[in-house]
Fold these 2 entries.
Entry 1:
Amino acid sequence: MDMNYTPEEQAFRDDVRAWLAAELPNPLAAKVKGGKRLHREDYLTWHALLRSRGWLAQHWPVEQGGAGWTPIEKHLFEEECVAAGAPRVIPFGLNMLGPVLIAFGSDTHKAHYLPRILSDEDWWAQGYSEPGAGSDLASLRTSAVRDGDHYIVNGQKTWTTLGHFANKLFCLCRTDPNAAKPQEGISFLLIDMDSPGVEVRPIITLDGEHEVNEVWLTDVRVPADNLVGEENKGWTYAKYLLTYERTGIAGVGYSKNALGHLKRVAAAQSHNGAPLSQDPLFAARMAKLEIDLLAMEMFNLRVVAAAGEGKAPGPESSLLKIKGTQVRQETTHLLRRALGPYAMPFLPEQFDEGWNGEPVGPDDAGPIATQYFNMRKVSIYGGSNEIQRNIVSKHMLGL
Amino acid sequence: MDMNYTPEEQAFRDDVRAWLAAELPNPLAAKVKGGKRLHREDYLTWHALLRSRGWLAQHWPVEQGGAGWTPIEKHLFEEECVAAGAPRVIPFGLNMLGPVLIAFGSDTHKAHYLPRILSDEDWWAQGYSEPGAGSDLASLRTSAVRDGDHYIVNGQKTWTTLGHFANKLFCLCRTDPNAAKPQEGISFLLIDMDSPGVEVRPIITLDGEHEVNEVWLTDVRVPADNLVGEENKGWTYAKYLLTYERTGIAGVGYSKNALGHLKRVAAAQSHNGAPLSQDPLFAARMAKLEIDLLAMEMFNLRVVAAAGEGKAPGPESSLLKIKGTQVRQETTHLLRRALGPYAMPFLPEQFDEGWNGEPVGPDDAGPIATQYFNMRKVSIYGGSNEIQRNIVSKHMLGL
Amino acid sequence: MDFTLSEERRMLLETTDRYIRDRYPIETRQANVQREEGFNRDTWKELADLGLVGALLPPEAGGFGGAGEDLAVVFEALARGAVVEPFLASGVLGAWPLARAGGHTSVLEQVIAGEALIAFAHGEPQGRYGPSYVAATAASNGEGGWSWTINGRKTVVLNGDTADWLIVSARVSGHTDEEEGLSLFLVPAGMAERRGYDSVEGGRAAEVILSDVRLPAENLLGESGAAYPLIEETLARGALALSAEALGLMEVCKDMTLEYLKTRKQFGRPLGAFQALQHRMVDMALEIEQARSSVMLAAGRLEGERIERERTVSAAKHLAGRVGRLVAEEAIQLHGGVAMTWEYALAHFAKRLVMIDHLLGDEDHHLQRFMAFSRMQEASS
Amino acid sequence: MDFTLSEERRMLLETTDRYIRDRYPIETRQANVQREEGFNRDTWKELADLGLVGALLPPEAGGFGGAGEDLAVVFEALARGAVVEPFLASGVLGAWPLARAGGHTSVLEQVIAGEALIAFAHGEPQGRYGPSYVAATAASNGEGGWSWTINGRKTVVLNGDTADWLIVSARVSGHTDEEEGLSLFLVPAGMAERRGYDSVEGGRAAEVILSDVRLPAENLLGESGAAYPLIEETLARGALALSAEALGLMEVCKDMTLEYLKTRKQFGRPLGAFQALQHRMVDMALEIEQARSSVMLAAGRLEGERIERERTVSAAKHLAGRVGRLVAEEAIQLHGGVAMTWEYALAHFAKRLVMIDHLLGDEDHHLQRFMAFSRMQEASS
């Protein structure tokens, strides 16, 4: 056992760190660190930088234009990016659809779509969730009926993150309503969002922000060539993608960064004449969180290292998802708590770039309470923590 | 709303307190407070005292020789007894079988058994649980087959508390194995433990103590007259008894007393040069417990007061059972924690009356760790906390 | 011992419940929040006309209630509508010091009638939840016929932007965190510089700056330098009101979640048929009963002696924080995505429930306060 | 980065596993506990012959291991049998100070061979878990040819009743709780007055009284007055060993509970089919993974620099306490009544798991220690 990174891994980390220091624009990093709203252009700027370095498609093999990284390298890269204040990579095309096409797409699909994902010519959105389906994908109702060399698609998708920026939608549709099992008879279609009958409606979340959308599909004509893989086998591809989505779900880098933020906020807040960070109860809450995070980092590395040996991430990734979301939620909870009365003032204009009014309370108080509420989502989406527990119970514990 | 006791209730409390001060023998109270083992004679001494005052049958109507108390009076009595260091009343005859006979027994049964319970001529044991049945009483397997004017009973009972002191056993047996539902076809029999075929075997619990037993029943001949109520209706009587058993299950008096003990132990333990009671983390644990107990006391009084208005204790008593056991277990947990290394020494001889060796560590350290382990039982017996949650979910929340 | 409500309080409860059911659906609440003042003056007047402000004050101050149980009943009932009108700011924190100090009866009358608003300008930057932390000063130099000159900065003053009057705490002597040396003043709000803003869960607050605010002698409330007991009493009433509000919000969150679990199906069964969720609902219901008990206890002790009042109020506010977070987070989680949307009412109840922990002391603050007063009680017994 | 075990450690693990499976069933464990010494000398000798004591010590001390990972592997494996033989007392707490101080090689050889026992007589009444709390004194008056005279009382000395040698900490200068001024001595056990007793979960301990115990100069270990770093290191090794043992016990508790849930039926279905219990098992499994990670981290840092060693060891021992309690209590609860019986093996694993929190610092002690060392680390970076 050796818990240290190899010299090669260490060199990789140094390389990433140096590149970020040189290339990541300061104003962009400042927006990310300050919790400002990011716009479409911010993401495209970041993608372009990564593209120029060959690091945009982190989960793709080199031959497809990917970075060809080991799991440990992906982990190191994520950690460095979070620490530097880089935006996230928009995952829908690069980390979700891309791997599915590489594994299951036709040569035509690969040749057509992969370069367009890499070049940001297409912005993909995910059409999985439906109102009334929740974590139960097998009960989905959006239908695709074959009509000559088209499918006619009708239905409604929800929780479509950044769907208002997207020009393409990959979408699960029911193609065989009479299939023996409900998860059979589902197909994986690629839909042009400019098609007649596609309508995107914003969902405002409880923090007052617009990030997710409903997508209404009414008699949308989709060329049959846009079917990925085989008809009625969409569930297989969807599961593959969900496994992918959980890689890195622990969010260790994010939480380490957030813990550092928490410590700074708690040190700056005064409590009974001393910094809040010295209050025995608050300090104990932070220390428990830090211990949980230390342990989770090791746990994550163990799973990452096992993946490097070719072991597919199994139910362990469900455990990491649960613990990762617990740690993220506890961090934003403590951040909120640390602010005391200053968690209350809500000045949404200060999340905009260029705002230079006077904040109420500490400089960075602004987005903290809303982030706490926003962060409730992480234990719900991507397969709720209850679904993850069901998976672990069945596949790891044999119950 | 008036949260104070009425003058009558206050006078009752004063009366009880004065009587306890005058009558409860000091050596007996010292044994109870010191966590010593109690023997059969100790319980009989206490029962005799209560009998002489007319307070032994606390749940019986006056006309049957009971105390005829209101729920509030029962509550006050329990609190005073615990504070004074009185032993508990052995409940099997007085609080369990007695009410069942009063409600469902024949006049002959009442005339014969009730006076013998009151006089301690009979020591009853409870024959409910079976190995393999747990909280699922309906699956019980002990059989009673009619043979002329007798039943022939075969089977095995377990968790029979103080069964080694008992001469009588009230027992659930299956009389109709073909009943439509498993909880039908069960009968409630009264068994003489001197009958041939009754064998009591001790169960040593994880704390090394002998309090519970297995009772093996092999071809035991029980007169048919010993059937309580109707054949195959035993489940109804058993449920009635279980509801009775849960009254007072919150154990408020017990926990108040234990919290006082905890505070004294924590004040006497040294930690970083100061009393442990001033350690911020330990003090916070104790304060949370105290707040939970304060709230539970009010909750208990609300349910007790409602019972006084004739409302039968419903699923609220299940909630009280859950919270009551959580508080009791947390108290013994903190007591154990407070002792630090001194929780480890185990000198079982010091639980015996008259032991006057030198203790290891604080005087009262001896039984604390074993009490912690023993107290694990309270969330298991009398319907486990999981069963209580099922009851609340169904009957209170409608799920 | 008697846990039933008096006839008067039962009527108060029914009146409030009916108003909220008929006239204050969530859409009205959200529309009121969107107004520039953060609430609706007409609604406020209607609620005052129903007697709901008067119920918070004793007869000697022109009200007809004012006991702990009155506060508990009114605030729990208002919570069922997530009412944003300034009951806490004006009816409790603002009116109580005035009611206790005596005088200024016309101001009180207007407050009870819903025609004037008072806000309690007490908390300060760096003060966090400390009840005696006051750096603002009051000098009695009597310049130009004025008796007092106030200087200082107050922070997150609830409804401070729209109040007509401010109750301002200021220090005439002593160190910043001392209990001795505090005075309370009634300040016409126009004399202060105010910067209003929205609160994250609805409602409004303000930063308030007092620069050489000059006041006549009669605007001092009570005896100079001896205001701490009244401040503490006011904060205790506020904390009780918030605990009762939290309780009402918990009940709404629980009821909405139960309803959702019963109707929403997944994997072919109602969500409520899943035992893991059932048991979590039971744990939630149990903790809510504990919170309810603590509110009843604190309500019954509010007018009693100080140590027991502070101890039980802190127990209630501690549980409001601890259980409130549990209930809010579980309600959102058990709802799944829908509770994440602005459009779904639960989100607003849950947000208010969480943010109550940031008003007048959080779970840890009140745990520590409970410990301090328990020690006092043990020392004195 | 590489999380696989080396070939040597895998063999060590397999050897231990096989021994426990074949030769140390729970009945043997219980029989060993019942012996007057609280363990079985023959078993101890067999385990030592397998190299399990030597694995805890470095080659320079006559062993063939001694790294953090060796301790972790051995103690986790031994826990699967709830082994009561004195590995912690003699193999870690006793042998390490001797190994580090150098000299006394024949004593160490006998310890590694399972022929002699050393116990670590360090904790004192009123000392609780304080690592530097030592009131016992060592005077260097050199009377009658002796160099040192030791006086003091040591408490809950593991296996102190049967040890042949004691490592005794005593103070040559400074206040009772100071790190400076401590010395360690090798004391022939017969020179101390000892009162042995059972420990609640099996095993033995003793109160040890040292009255004018006179020792020659060579029985001082290391430099006089400068023993604290070695004491701290010894306690860190002990805490790591206990954390690894706790981990092994957790795995046993989890496995037994899973087995029970799969076979035991209630209401016509296996208990394991009830979702509420499933989810609790998952939470238990998740926390055990966290505990495992913390043990691996601490094992990897044991030989590194002090602050990171203490921080990670305290993190591991904190989780051993926190998760250990969760697992023990849940395992008993999910088993229902049967786990309450002496006869059922689970009870003994769960008891040991709980009582580990009382050895070398509990969950709170190590949380506070983690906080202190984290502050040191932040201050120095």
Entry 2:
Amino acid sequence: MSTAAAKSPAFDQQGTQSDAQRVDAAMRSFVREFGVTAALHMESCVRCGMCAEACHFHVATGEAKYTPVYKLELFRRAYFREASPFAPLVRLLGLVKPPSIGELQQWQELIYGSCTVCGRCTMICPMGIDIAELVKEARHGMFKAGLIPERLALMDRAAQQWGSTATPGEDLPDILREVSEEHGVEIPCDLDSAEMLVTAAPAELGDHTKALAAAAKVLNRAGIRWTMHQGGFDAANIGFNNGDLELQERLTRSIIDTAIKIGANTVLLPECGHAYGAARWEAAKWYGQALPVRIIHMTEFLDEMLAAGRIKVKPIGQSATFHDPCQIVRRGGLEAAARRVVAALGFELIELKDHGIAGYCCGGGGGVVSNVRATPLRHKVFEIKRAQIDATGAERFVTSCGQCRITLEQGAKQARWTKPVESLLELVADNLAD
Amino acid sequence: MDLLDFARGPALTFAGAVFVLGTLWRLSGVLLLPRLRDLSPPREGAPAPWRGALGTVLRRMWPRREFLDRTMFSTVNSYVFHIGLAVTVFGLAPHILFIRNFSGLSWPALPSNVVFAVGVITLVSLFAALARRLTHPVLKLLSHTGDYLSWALTTLPVLTGLLATAHLGARYETLLALHILSIAAFLIWFPFGKLMHAFLFVFSRGATGVRFSHRGVKA
Amino acid sequence: MSQARLLGEVLRERGVSRRAFLKYAGYMASLMALPPSAAGAMAEGLAKARRQAVIWLSFQECTGCIESLTRSFSPSLEDLIFDFISLDYQHALQAASGEAAEEARRQSMRENKGKYIVIVDGSVPMGDGGVYSTVAGHTNQAILAETIADAAAVVAVGTCAAFGGLPEADPNPTGAVPISQLVGDKPLINIPGCPPMPQAMAGTLLHILSFGKLPELDHLHRPRAFFGENIHDRCYRRPFYERGLFAKAFDDEGAREGWCLYELGCKGPVTYNACASLKWNGGVSFPIQSGHGCIGCSEPRFWDRGGLYRALPTGTSDVRKVIGIAAVAGVALGAGAAALARRRSAATRDAAAAPPAKTPSPQE
Amino acid sequence: MDTLSPGAGPIDAPAAAVLREVVARLQRLAREPDFSDAIDLHSLPLGESGREQLRQRLGQGEVDCALQVAGATRICETAYAGAWWVRHADADDRTQHEQIVIARVPALLLAHSDDIGDAARRLAEELAAPACQEIS
């Protein structure tokens, strides 16, 4: 039971900037975001309120302030003052007030505490506005203004120091040795050349080491020449969640540069949502050109290995339901791949009422699970997913994202719900056929 | 007669000019902003960008199954007054003449009394939309003066049009003048408010369509 | 010349029985949409009235109005009006001319001081001191002022007198003005139309004679009896308008079927007159019935309303040039705004690009 | 279109409305002998066919008289006592005005007292005038 009393929706601040400097930093960052797509989306909102009906935070609480597009209110005002076609007119006539420091501070709870950037609102918006992307872009300004939740700021500083929120690079060889001994699987580390650079999620270097071992088992069985490397091993890019663009760039470069250095042609991402978002879709942005390495998610990898017959699994033959991680399925496009793996495992898949692209979010992505302020809200959201899982009556409950598993496990613990949350990767590894 | 002459002459011309200028200003002002290209490799088998865009533009015409029951009222009511406005504006003979006058395009008209009935339904639907915007907690929070102004300047032409057709309230030419002036107000406000979604929605949905079809998702 | 004796006696001597008064009054009452019961009262009022002195002044006019009233080719009931009034001065009809005619006018003004009615057709030119239309060296403006000084009422017949009509149409070279601008507070009745309906002229005069006061007028001083409703509301083709059946050309299938002429520029909906109900030439037909749209001749400035064949709902000015300029300006402003936004965004990027040295990442 | 009397053929709505008006006024006339009213066929949206149907439906009564008063006028009683069909024509016999008059007798038929006074006077003068001395 989380003992932290629900704090009043206050806010955290980092750095020593004055209030005016914070507002200016936020506005200068906002101005940089507005390419054609962001501008088009800002211009097209007709305030129809439908996005609220898709957002689990609003659906669970009924509170109007969790309306997704309302979370963009300050970003919208910045856009109309600074980048819109009528910006000079808007500024001249003072039609739109610039955000104040008080508003930015109150806004932290909406932008970080009650948005998992899951993109379900993007799927309902009749104007096709990618609200999730705009929230993520608004976070850049909030980070520049030093107005992000303290817990996330802490992880940000750790990652700037270690390249990972979980462990410093130097400790990687020892951790991998422990895991390989504990799980009896060989995990190569820091090889000079390899076919595939494998990366991990921070939790996999902590309490979810079984997932890491599972990955190793599958990779070895498939006969892949792979390695993990101190140069770039933590794929869950915290900069991507916090809005810290410099950190996001550095973390991405550390992985891509390491892969190029060891001559790898593929970077394998772990079962993690935001890792996929940051690497698969935004890595090339920092290089300004297409990347020489292929970046794939663990789910794609399992799907390809099974399809190519390089690994086989024993059918489990039970009923199961699958939670679609947002960044992997709704915003990643791996809905079909995940279901092929589930089918290969011989599960009789019973879909959740809302699944696939329109599935509900676990409620913890985008840094919300790490943001202790959002805990009470998260537990309310957990009810939606739990009800849908119970409704399927499936025996097993599977997903393919470490963050979702942590969020759902915390929710289950708080709601005293006994069904275990299982990893697709671990199921494949445990059921490898000879 | 002077009000009608003013309405049909200078008012309409000025409104038309402001409409064209404002709409192109806003559209080009947005479309000429820097294009941040997605350099990542597309999902295998992903359709061409324009096809992805078109897909989303069409799909977003109707909410997905999962969202339908929670958005039934908004969806249905919005379609009622959108289709109502379309039938009224493009179905009524005098409107077709107005369009033919400056564009040369013409097509057969619907019976005027049918269009009148549709106009009444449209008016009721617009008031229902306003009632919802004034009472629903989410909409109350989101709405600002621009929304109410857009609503008013869309409803006024329908109201004055119906009054003119029914010849209620004043001399016919006064009603017709008020109707044309309300359309002029509508055209002048159009580019600066959310009515621009009539043009922007294609690009807005298209951009999301391109972004997600690149990732193999039918957004 | 006007006798003191009552009209009833005067006319009976010429064989006009009171039954004729009643028939005439009944007909005119129906024209003026008065209740049938008013016919008796009108007949009695007429019989007891004195013969009304009338002076008809013709200025910038085409004689269409007097032709419409007299309609010499087939005298009808309206013509009886000439038995009830003493037309003391009228260019087209009077035998006298030159000074004799002017003298007749002045004598009638003297004898019927304060009681005579002045009928005017044609507008009055004010340009260049009014030289564009003079009679015996006097400008129309002067003659009008002199004549209406002691008049009981002024009746401006025809759109030229009522609203300026053709002479006042753009570019109005003679500086023509409607009579209403020159009569001050003298009671004025406008009977527009190009030409006006004979029933309207006769009916209005009869109303003054028999009831001794002006008929009810609208905001343009037009008798409501004849100008209260617009043509569209009384048009027999209205059902076609309701069903959206319109003639697209003057000789297409629709026109032959008698469909609505709205698309061919008919101004019926915004024109107030009695053509559709009383019809012309003794009730034979009216413009729309003969296949031509109403041109709105009884409304002010109907010549300058963007062409007789331009449909009502269309704008009156050619907007293509204006819209073209607006389009170019719009795109230019848009491009400028985008460039400005691009520059502002670049400026912030440069500022951000030179932050203090980053802490070295682990592997460097 | 409702048919008032069977077999008399269909009747347009406007014509039927006029007949209902006639009935109402006849009922009143029956109660108030000196009541008189008229229905003006001129300004109603009655086409020629409507007028013809009315004429057929109202039929012919016992009285049919032609007046020569500033052009021809024809007054004939319809088949329904108290309802008279009055048609005024101008010099060229074009219908100027048509009415259905509801009265015991249309006012137009009554000689006016002034005319009677004048007639008496003229006849007296006629008698006194030498031209018609009695032939002794």
